[in-house]
């Protein structure tokens, strides 16, 4: 991996710092029955947080993690509480003082919470920067991303809603991105590399480009990018291409997504492109595929802890002599859990000799913040 010093020797004045902007910090914040604030591990996105740790512990880059705190909960509460608009903030049962916020951030910085127990001599990522948003109707920060962007980016039309509702969702989405921009500005130093992740922060590169014109910005997308002939259906097709062009570089999971993005840029926006970049006026935006990987060392280590060993022994007894297929997916309308089960059933019908000789273990979970779109689509029903 290229070091900061190598960049400097080649004439690129980098600071040696990477500011990672993620949708949410890796912790779920809740208040206990005895009125203490505590944090527990957040399921999902472990590969993303592990990559931040790798940069921190195995390279010369100084990494910073910037993210929303997520919804605040009472202990054992399944749905985040909404606070009436007229209620004073100090009367909010989930109100945090500055001291409370600092305590929560200190807990999120711990090794055990972020990445599991650290190895001897291994330091945790102390550079955590929480984005604290208003508590009133706190699920509103997810509405536009989950009910509009998420389905469209997976080739599904969102359910029809009143225009006023979507306008409010969009307003909250803009505020969400602006809150991140304010946090980045507060810690930014010339030469920092700002790395933006995923569809919750589509507007952030453009906002930062206007406010910090000379900054180095990378936007990495773990989701699909629409094919041009599909995106033509949507009035907002140009939006999905234009928002990326505030970055210096755009990364996707696969080369096919890169091709879809380049096609949209040339056919819908009229920009010149080549297989590796988009020419935007007097600048160019680099485009490449960066498949999301896993922390092999951490997985190998965790695979042999006593808890896992006991679980493996139990599965061996239950499935003696059978082939095992293991799947792990979030339970929503686009991750294909229903289709996977139907495919497995069809496989057994086509090849009955495998009945009793193969077992599918499907691990699925429903995020506590799952929004209406994910639970009301025909595929889910």
UniProtKB/TrEMBL annotation:
<dbReference type="GO" id="GO:0005992">
    <property type="term" value="P:trehalose biosynthetic process"/>
</dbReference>
<protein>
    <submittedName>
        <fullName>Uncharacterized protein</fullName>
    </submittedName>
</protein>
<dbReference type="GO" id="GO:0034605">
    <property type="term" value="P:cellular response to heat"/>
</dbReference>
<dbReference type="Pfam" id="PF00982">
    <property type="entry name" value="Glyco_transf_20"/>
</dbReference>
<dbReference type="GO" id="GO:0003825">
    <property type="term" value="F:alpha,alpha-trehalose-phosphate synthase (UDP-forming) activity"/>
</dbReference>
<dbReference type="InterPro" id="IPR001830">
    <property type="entry name" value="Glyco_trans_20"/>
</dbReference>
<dbReference type="GO" id="GO:0005829">
    <property type="term" value="C:cytosol"/>
</dbReference>
<dbReference type="GO" id="GO:0004805">
    <property type="term" value="F:trehalose-phosphatase activity"/>
</dbReference>
<dbReference type="GO" id="GO:0005946">
    <property type="term" value="C:alpha,alpha-trehalose-phosphate synthase complex (UDP-forming)"/>
</dbReference>
<dbReference type="GO" id="GO:0031505">
    <property type="term" value="P:fungal-type cell wall organization"/>
</dbReference>
